[in-house]
Amino acid sequence: MSHKKIRQGIIETCIEMNKSGLNQGTSGNLSHRIEGGMLITPTSLPYERMRNDDVVEMAFDGTVIGKHRPSSEWRFHRDILLKRTDVNVVLHTHSVYCTTLATHERGIPSFHYMVAVAGGSDIRCSPYACFGTQELSNLALEALKDRTACLLGHHGLIVLADTFEKAMWRAIEIETLAKMYVHALAIGEPPHLSEKEMAQVIEQMRRMGYGQAPDLDKVKDTPKLMSAKPAVSEVPKSKPEKPARQYPKLVKAKTTSVQTTKAQTIKVDTSAQGKIAAKPAAKAASSTKPAVKPATPKRAPKAAAAPKTKAPKAAAPKVTAKKPAAVKKATAAKKPAAAQGTPAASVSSTSFKSLVGSALNRRK
Fold first, then answer.
1. What is the pLDDT of residues 185-243, one digit of tens each?
2. Is residue 296 part of a domain?
């Protein structure tokens, strides 16, 4: 099997014809030129079931290669491709509005300038002939003279093009024109553009097709493409913009030093523990006051301490001897302090013994 890409293109275009409403069922057909002949759709095979090897290869002498018979309209496909070497694709469809006009054996006149997409000032309609006959093929060739589309009387539409895409585009345009013409006839026959006016349209389309801007009025207002760069002098010089100055980002440290005086530097720890560590510096004059008082962290108030109870001390041994006068005077001197609410000073047992001993010695 050869020409795989063309075979696939035939299948995809046929499916698109039905999806777009240009065709219904298997009534339409499509062909593409190959060397010495053409590839054409088989007869009576739904497009959704068609595969690449179902497309029929047919020589211009009528020889068929493939497992299916070619479309019943193979005669006008073959004759058109033989006579019209300027095209590669022949598309035939039974679109609704084109067929509506064809049933009246009525072509599409120059009621709208887009009629020129078929290559002339009108789109002809051929007389009726039975499908699949040589007579129909001959009539189609006559209607297609200097045109890329025609209507077949009581039948449908034929479109010629270089590619599948252009064939679909032209078929849709002509079906749209047929629809507009049918609606216009409801009011009455619309006025037609003259041959001169249509010739101007055709020339405009030809120039645009070759990539030339249309300027038939010669007003020299067409856009011009500059192939070369403009001279340096024509371009205004602009000073290069200075890049914005980049400043380093400041990152806060966990600890910051606050210098209070020359004598002392306090290092404040801002962490959660809230501890303060101070490092002594060289001694300075005491009269200098700190410039900034270091912030001292607030401490939580201490809980009220429970009253301390002192264990009772062991009582000193009683001495039956009378106290000397010196001891009595010392004791008497301490009593007023106790009366005023001040606790008397406690005398240790050792000092008390020494006092008693000295008094006894004096007495002896």
1. 999 999 999 999 999 999 999 888 755 666 666 666 666 666 655 555 555 556 666 66
2. no
Whether 27 shows a pLDDT value over 50: the answer reads yes
What's the burial of 159, exposed, middle or buried (CB within 10 Å: 0-12/13-18/19+)? Answer: buried
Phi, then psi, of 141 in degrees rounded to 5 = -60, -40
Domain contains 237: no
Per the domain annotation, does 23 fall within a domain?
Answer: yes
Could you give the number of structural domains in the chain?
A: 1
Write the CB contacts of 349 (distance below 8 Å, at least 6 apart in sequence). Answer: 316
Q: Which domain holds residue 137?
A: 4-209
> Residue 45 is encoded by which pair of tokens?
């095979």
Q: Amino acid identity, residue 108?
A: I
Mean pLDDT of 34-55: 95
In a domain, 147, yes or no: yes
Catalytic residue, candidates 73, 165, 173, 234: 73
Element (H, E) at 37: strand 37-40
Q: What is the CATH number of the domain that holds 101?
A: 3.40.225.10
Question: What letter represents residue 223's amino acid?
Answer: P
Report d(CA 130, CA 149) in Å as an integer: 19
Write out pLDDT tens, residues 262-285.
444 445 444 444 444 444 444 444
CA distance 174 to 309: 118
Q: Is the pTM of this model over 0.85?
A: no
Is 73 one of the annotated active-site residues of the chain?
A: yes
Convert 196-220 to b/e letters by CB count within 10 Å (16 or more is b).
Answer: eebebbbebbeeeeeeeeeeeeeee
